[in-house]
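INTERNAL AUDIT FORM
Audit reference: QA-55
Scope: verify that the stored structure record matches its stored sequence.
Auditor: D.O.
Record contents follow.
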Amino acid sequence: MTQDSGQVLDALDQALVHALQIAPRAGWARIGAALGVDPVTVARRWARLTRAGAAWVSCHPAPLVAESGQGCLAFVEVDCANGRLPGVARELTAEPHVAAVEHVSGGRDLLLTVFAPHLPALTRWVTHRLGALDGIVATRTHLASTVYAEGSKWRLRALDSARIARLTESAPARADAPVFALTDLDLALLAELSVDGRASHRVLAERCGTSPDTVRRRVNKLFAAGMAHTRCEVARPLSEWPVSLILWGRVAPGELRGVAEQITGAREVRLCAGVVGRHNLKVIAWVRSLDDAQRFEVRLAERVPALTVVDRAVALWPMKLNGQLLDERGYRIRAVPIDVRGVASA
């Protein structure tokens, strides 16, 4: 179910979304206390937003996992034959390890975000699955080296500092735990959480065939090690930043980290990642309009003179975002679990 184009988020909806961006798995009592609202009211509000596809909580393997040598993250450009884009997109949105599929402007038709457990698995999938898919003319694969910022850190900014502090102060302590080898249960839990990032331990236990206590331990371990990122999203037309701008840049290798840190300070930035390819930096920003996209690039050039933007695109239709299938206006339709086990055995 989706909303009509006149749908807006009122002040409480915006506050609720922002609270869940800070504490996506917090109980309704904690969320309600931070907002000064009865827990039943915030739970009812959230149920209405999710039914409408206006907001949702999902989860994905953290980019840190790719940096640990356990996996890899790739951005894949796809060129389609005339008239074949819809069919190709349908095939790719169904792939569980393809976290995002965007129809974009510029020098490519589709832009994919792909998770794989290791480079050989990604190579096999690009060569044998993607390369053989009817309707594809060409592909180009760019590997992420370091992810400096990603969508779980983006905020709607509807709460004042006091309410933010109340949410963060009551958050459970996170240990600085080491990265560990993912088990089949861990991968199954990540897949279920990618569909519903607020799923309870009991529900996860039922779906994964184990006990709630085991689920609690494994989920806590995943989050403590920074190996899973849960995030609350809102349909972009409701965020006041409805245009998704994608920039590819070039930076001197020795300045890459410093430049990335400057870029991630901009409110609009949703993703900043070092890439191995013809460009070495990718940035995704949400902006208010196409005019604002150009103004953002001007502001970025002033803020970060060491960055040279060499290519740009606008997401015409983000068909899949972090495992969630979206309609043409950006409202959630349903989810495809993010799961790398299929590509691992391909």
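Auditor finding: record pair retrieved intact. Residues 1-6 have pLDDT under 50 and may be disordered.
Action required: none
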